[in-house]
Specification:
By secondary structure, the protein is an alpha+beta fold. The chain has helices spanning 6-13, 37-55, 58-70, 116-122, 160-164, 167-174, 198-228, 238-247, 267-298, 306-314, 340-350, and strands at residues 20-26, 84-89, 94-99, 106-110, 128-134, 137-144, 147-151, 232-235, 302-303, 318-324, 354-358, 369-373. It has a four-stranded antiparallel β-sheet with strand order 3-2-1-4, with helices on both faces. Strand 10 (318-324), helix 11 (340-350) and strand 11 (354-358) form a beta-alpha-beta unit. The chain is globular.
């Protein structure tokens, strides 16, 4: 499963080699509804082919259609879908993103990708990751308040063997004390009644767990947390929680955790427990942004007027933009667009501003937009 990240958005906002085709459709997690997803996708690709034929030479369109149609032949691909799917193809690339929220069916053909549906998802403030820890295995989820999906990012070890390989057994035999020379045997701490090798086995197993968790932490930081910026919740028994937190260098790891064995929890229970950890942080973040907006507005450094904010965004003056989720604003005679808020979001991101999509009940304005200016 490949979920959209901020880095993905930045790449898609850049200049592309046309023609660019963007295909969006709602998908289903379970059979038999999922069986129809490939059929709907094939119909949308047919629409794209017709639109390409009218605008672009066949030689330019052929590699794009080849990329798009390749997915229709992959039966395994259609058995592992989420709530929505985005497929973006050009002569130079094919990007496929699973979406945790449904999107309307749509096909857009042009000189750039249509990414507005992605923006509303990637900038939503309720997204997070959950790392389920056990002594010799981990599982990683991406979620929001509505659901969780398992993700398996490349480079993140999921088992102790993935992380340490054959070094596990070697490590148990050849550990050294801190400060001892390499190769010096690790004498196990033993009481007079301890069975032979008992303490050594226990201590070496703990060291293997620490090494495994340290490798997981580094990989999650580099492959997941940094690219997305999302908060990370740990689900593990207290002993594993303590070990992981002692070795973790991930600034996205939040203090609240789920102190239960994740293997005994359903995904519904895991989601409820994770959201209980995330919600106070989520609400505090939104309150702080609201306070910052009101303070900036008192200094004439903020606005809730969409037209004024759009002009400021074009000038690169918008540092933070709050956008109301599921809200659409029609264009004006001067700014012809199907949704002014989406165009505004793209403009802010192009100038490296921050965009946060928030629910209607948390918006500090009635216009659907709240912008804090850089100057």
């Amino acid at each position: 499963m490949h979920t959209i990240t901020n880095q993905d958005v930045s790449g898609l906002l850049g200049v592309q080699k046309p023609p660019c085709v963007s295909v969006y459709l709602p998908t289903h997690r379970s059979y038999p509804d999922s069986k129809e997803d490939a059929v709907h996708y094939r119909d949308l690709v047919d629409q794209a082919e017709e639109a390409l034929r009218k605008t672009y030479p066949h030689a330019e369109s052929r590699p794009v259609l080849s990329r798009l149609r390749g997915l229709t032949e992959d039966d395994a691909f259609w058995t592992q879908r989420s709530d929505g799917l985005a497929v973006l193809a050009s002569p130079a690339k094919l990007e496929v993103f699973d979406l945790q929220r449904p999107v309307p069916e749509r096909v857009v053909v042009g000189d750039s990708f249509h990414i507005k549906p992605l923006l509303r998802i990637v900038q939503s403030a309720d997204r997070f990751h959950v790392l389920c820890l056990q002594r010799e295995a981990v599982r990683l989820y991406e979620g929001n308040r509505d659901g969780l999906d398992v993700i398996e990012p490349a480079g993140v070890p999921l088992t102790v063997q993935d992380a340490l390989g054959t070094d596990v057994a070697v490590q148990r035999k050849e550990q050294t004390f801190p400060g001892k020379s390499a190769g010096e045997k690790h004498p196990p701490p033993r009481g007079p009644n301890a069975p032979p090798g008992h303490a050594a086995t226990r201590d070496d197993a703990k060291l293997d767990t620490e090494r495994f968790f340290r490798a997981v932490d580094q990989a999650v930081l580099e492959r997941v947390s940094r690219p997305t910026g999302l908060p990370l919740v740990i689900a593990a028994l207290p002993e594993q929680q303590a070990i992981f937190r002692a070795v973790s260098q991930n600034p996205n790891l939040i203090e609240a955790g789920i102190e239960q064995g994740p293997g005994l929890m359903s995904e519904k229970e895991l989601l409820a427990a994770a959201w209980k950890c995330i919600e106070p942080r989520y609400l505090a973040q939104l309150r702080q942004m609201t306070d910052d907006f009101e303070t900036a507005r008192a200094r004439a450094l903020a606005s809730d007027d969409p037209a004024a904010v759009f002009r400021a965004a074009q000038e690169g003056r918008v540092g933070i933009l709050l956008v109301e989720a599921d809200r659409k604003l029609p264009g004006t005679p001067i700014m012809e667009t199907d949704d002014l808020l989406d165009d505004l979001t793209e403009e802010v991101l192009r100038h490296r501003g921050k965009v946060v999509v928030v629910p209607a009940e948390q918006m500090p304005t009635v216009s659907g937009v709240a912008a804090i200016y850089r100057y």
